[in-house]
Structures are given as structure tokens and as C-alpha cells.
């Protein structure tokens, strides 16, 4: 049941956090970039792999271009953090984190103490 609510929460967050930024991105790209007339598929795909480079002086002089580039640069990490917030703190995820932690520190002689609920048990020296 908890997975269902997390999934529904993620879907709701997707609707809330995806639709407005997508509409904004479409509006922004429509105002920043000009769309030329369509001639043919050959013209559309001509030199398709070309990556144009512009001096910063040119694109930094346009406020909308700065907003567009910054928005597209930060939206992916923000979406990743939202996804992690929904699924990274779940009980099953925490169990997996704990198992990996103990697997990594096992060669150092550290083991979980069953009497302290999984707390760190440091072996005595000497």
C-alpha cells in the first residue's frame, strides 16, 4: 500500500512539476528561437549532426536565452532529487543501504551488534 501512495504521489508531483515548466519551456523557446519555413525533409535533416557554438557575449545579451539555458540545465537534477525523495527514503531502500554499508565495512572488522538494533560494534583491540 505504501508503494501505491508513493507512486501516486510521484505521479501527482510529475503533473504539478512537469506541466507548468514544459509550458514555460515551449513559450520560452518560441520567443528565443525563430522557426524558418519548412521546405523539405532533405532540408530539415541537412547537416543534422552539426553543433553550433556561439560566443557568450551573444547569448548573454539576451535575457530569455539565459533563462532558457539555466532552466534546461537545472530541471534534470531537480527532477532526480524529487524522484529520490519519493523512493530513496523508503524502508526497503534504507534496508538495502544498510546491507551495502555492512558489506563494505566487514573487511575492517566492523559488524552490526544485534543487541543494539543494528548499531556499530567496534572490536576490542588487545
Explain the layout of strands and helices.
Elements: H1 2-32, H2 41-44, H3 56-59, H4 63-87, H5 91-105, E1 111-113, E2 119-121
Antiparallel strand pairs: 1-2
Helix pairs in contact: 1-4
Structural summary, described in words:
There is one protein chain. The chain has two domains: 1-33 and 55-89; 90-126, no CATH class. Helices cover 63% and strands 5% of the residues. It has helices spanning 2-32, 41-44, 56-59, 63-87, 91-105; strands at 111-113, 119-121. Helix 1 runs antiparallel to helix 4. It starts with a helix and ends in a 5-residue tail after the last strand.
Keywords:
two-stranded antiparallel sheet, mainly alpha, 2 domains, 2 strands, 126 residues, 5 helices
Number of strands: 2
Mean pLDDT: 83
Instruction: Summarize the main sheet.
Output: 2 strands, antiparallel
DSSP helical segment count: 5
Q: Tell me the radius of gyration.
A: 25 Å
Strand-and-helix sequence, N→C? HHHHHEE
What would you call the quaternary organization?
single chain
Strand content: under 5%
Q: So what's the overall shape? A: elongated
- List low-pLDDT spans: none
Task: Provide the helix percentage.
Answer: 55-70%
Return the structural class: mainly alpha
Tally of distinct domains? 2
Distance between the termini: 50 Å
Largest beta sheet: what is the strand line-up? 1-2
Amino acid at each position: 500500500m505504501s508503494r501505491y501512495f508513493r507512486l501516486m504521489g510521484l505521479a501527482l508531483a510529475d503533473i504539478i512539476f512537469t506541466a507548468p515548466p514544459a509550458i514555460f519551456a515551449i513559450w520560452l523557446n518560441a520567443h528565443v528561437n525563430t522557426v524558418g519555413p519548412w521546405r523539405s525533409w532533405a532540408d530539415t535533416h541537412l547537416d543534422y549532426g552539426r553543433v553550433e557554438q556561439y560566443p557568450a557575449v551573444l547569448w548573454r545579451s539576451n535575457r530569455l536565452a539565459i533563462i532558457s539555458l539555466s532552466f534546461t540545465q537545472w530541471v534534470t537534477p531537480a527532477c532526480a532529487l524529487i524522484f529520490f525523495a519519493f523512493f530513496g527514503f523508503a524502508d526497503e531502500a534504507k534496508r538495502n543501504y544498510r546491507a551495502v554499508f555492512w558489506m563494505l565495512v566487514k573487511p575492517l572488522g566492523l559488524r552490526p551488534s544485534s543487541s543494539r538494533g543494528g548499531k556499530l560494534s567496534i572490536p576490542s583491540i588487545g
